[in-house]
Amino acid sequence: MSGNDVTSTRVAILTGGWSDEREIAISSARACETALAAAGFSRVDVLDVADSSFLSALTSGSYDVAFVAMHGRYGEDGCVQGLLEILRIPYTFSGVEASATAADKSLSKLVYERAGIPTAPSRTLGAGERLDAAAAAGICEELGLPLFVKPEVNGSSYGITKVRDAAELPAAVELAGAEGGRVLVEAGVEGTEITVAVVGNEAPEALPVVEIAMDSDFYDLETKYEPSELHHVIPARLAADVYGRAQELAVRAHVALGCRGASRSDFIVTSDGTPVILETNTIPGMTETSLMPDAACHAGIGFPELCRRFVELALEGR
Questions:
Q1: pTM for this predicted structure
Q2: How far apart are CA 85 and CA 218, in angstroms?
Q3: What are 256-290's pLDDT values in tens digits?
Q4: Active site residues
Q5: CA–CA separation, 68 vs 29, rounded Å?
Q6: 119 neighbors 112 (Cβ within 8 angstroms)
């Protein structure tokens, strides 16, 4: 931790926006506002980027740092980061390039593969592409069943379908591409679902591994926002070498993508102990039920201290 006192800085928490995850982002922002106050910050404002007065409030507020509490489109894909770069306001979490790369599931898979991080076989479909029965059967033969069908750029499990039969695939593709983007069709990997949070800039470190225990087919919206004690097992019930490997791969993903401040990578650990990466979140959820704060707590880092650390990392080297 830095020895510098950052609590005198003026912080703008950027939240809201227009994505499917607007309300979740606002919940994160309010939780971070409370945490920063508990950490000793006295000048913290919450700004909704969808408000007509947002830009004038941001540019006239003499803010020292922006705390980005936005999820999904416009917040996690490099858009708001580009605005902050133009305004020369330091901000929490990753920059434009890393944010855009991590948000694009197909592009991030290429980065993972180049970094030697195991990924599931997949196929990317173009925007607006539709499948007939023959095309659906061909993809199922190529990738096997079950499949997961996802919007190429989105978060928080919106538009994701688990496909168990080729007949289900065309409708799943249509749902995932409903907003006009490309669609990722990915082989379903069976095993234990885990997530690994990473904190840091030049010397990032992994937090304790969280195992996600659930009855649903995948970590869907309903499961994500239930009380954390129902689904978070910390530390994950993995063999010591697998546990360490998952942490190492999460740090490798953080570095390969060029992340700053924090990231959280999701994996499926297969029966042979291989962590297969699913995706990396560059702005992890920051509500009371969120995975990163829970992992940090088990590492002895309280929520106020975690939020303070993010401000320090945003200002590091500035």
A1: 0.91
A2: 36
A3: 999 999 999 999 999 999 999 999 999 999 987 79
A4: 21, 156, 225, 264, 266, 279, 281, 285
A5: 8
A6: yes
